[in-house]
Amino acid sequence: MYPFNSDRAYIRNAWYVAAWGSEITRKPFQRTIMEEPIVFYRTESGEPVAMFGLCPHRTHPLVDGRLIGDDIMCPYHGFTYSPQGACVRIPAQDKVPQQFRQRIYPLVERGGAVWIWMGDASAVDMTKMPQISEIGMDVPGWKTVENGMTSIKARWSLVIDNVMDLSHVGFIHLKTIEAPAAGEVAPQDDADQRIQCARWLINQSPDMSYARNAIPDNSEPLDLELGSVFYGPGLVAAYLRFYTAASKGERKLLSTTYHLQCVTPETPHMSYNFSGVVRNVRLDAPDFDQWLKTAVNKTREEDVEALEKIEPMVDRFANARSELSGVGDVSAIRVRRQLAALLALEEAA
């Protein structure tokens, strides 16, 4: 499946954002991940639960069920399941066979998000959890602003490609980010610890809208570092760092903002993009919160429009071996190779 040689549609042994924590309440809701319907709810103590969303009795969606304490009861015939997946009640029946169970998905709640492991529950690997503290999540002196979820009619690998090659900022986002030089600057690629790519935009105007909102008291030219870091199939973090201009003296960092792109496969041709912004500047500025949300939503609309035009074309016409790639694609291609290796590893297991 493009852009990989593998026929596997997903990398299962990884952590993906299933929901923002605020989405999961005492009212069950359903989300399809990797073609599997999953019902989510919280126990009375607040712990999130993720359970296969169809009752194994007669396949009725459990999202329509009722919570009884920490258990969920199917609305069709009353079969009831515990947060651990055990069937604990069958109406008109005194005993429930121990093998009557429902699949439970491992969850971890961090950084305001609920992360799900879609592989075998016995093979859960916490070392594969993205190190979100590196990008300021759950770190004092930083603020995370969640910005919802967008369903995109495009495969997850296209979404990752989009974030790993930010040269498109200088073209498709001309009206929203106002950084036309981003498309013309050669990137600096690094793969020592994590695959990452940065572009330096020198002597940028302090009046560009992002700079004006992030550091409103500044009136001097700025150097902008625009980059992205790959943390795994479920998370790519794009970032903007504003510095004092080196042309005016020693360069000093003024602010850092990470734009979270949490990518979760819905189907082979559809993805969820959970968006959030983490920053270390103007933490108590609700006007900046709102500006960031509005700006991100506009850029996301532009990205979604492009990706949904590409998706119908790739299976018919795209060939990863013959497509043209330039210097701006180095990091994205490295990511593709790492993802291909993960797919091959699971295929061989």
Mean of residue pLDDT? 95
CATH superfamily of the largest domain: Naphthalene 1,2-dioxygenase Alpha Subunit, Chain A, domain 1
Architecture of the largest domain, according to CATH? Answer: Alpha-Beta Complex
In N-to-C order, the SSE pattern is: EEEEEEEEEEEHEEHEEEEHH
Task: Give a count of the beta strands, DSSP E runs of length 2 or more.
Answer: 17
Q: What's the CATH topology name of the largest domain?
A: Naphthalene 1,2-dioxygenase Alpha Subunit, Chain A, domain 1
Query: What is the CA-atom radius of gyration, in angstroms?
Result: 22 Å
Q: How many independent structural domains?
A: 2
Structural class: alpha+beta
Distance between the termini: 19 Å
- Gross morphology: globular
Number of helices: 4
* Helix percentage: 10-25%
Low-confidence stretches: none
What fraction of the residues are assigned to beta strands by DSSP? 25-35%
Adjacency order of strands in the biggest sheet? 11-17-16-15-14-13-12
For the largest beta-sheet, the strand count, sense and barrel status come to: 7 strands, antiparallel
CATH class of the largest domain: Alpha Beta
Summarize the structure.
The chain contains 4 helices and 17 strands. It is of the alpha+beta class and 349 residues long.
Can you put this structure into words, describing what you see?
19% of the residues lie in helices and 32% in strands. The chain is of the alpha+beta class and 349 residues long. The protein has 2 domains: 15-123, Rieske [2Fe-2S] iron-sulphur domain (Rieske Iron-sulfur Protein, 3-layer Sandwich); 130-348, Naphthalene 1,2-dioxygenase Alpha Subunit, Chain A, domain 1, CATH 3.90.380. The chain has a 7-stranded antiparallel β-sheet with strand order 11-17-16-15-14-13-12. Strands 5-6-7-8 form a 4-stranded antiparallel β-sheet, with no helix packed on it. The protein starts with 14 loop residues before the first strand and ends with a helix.
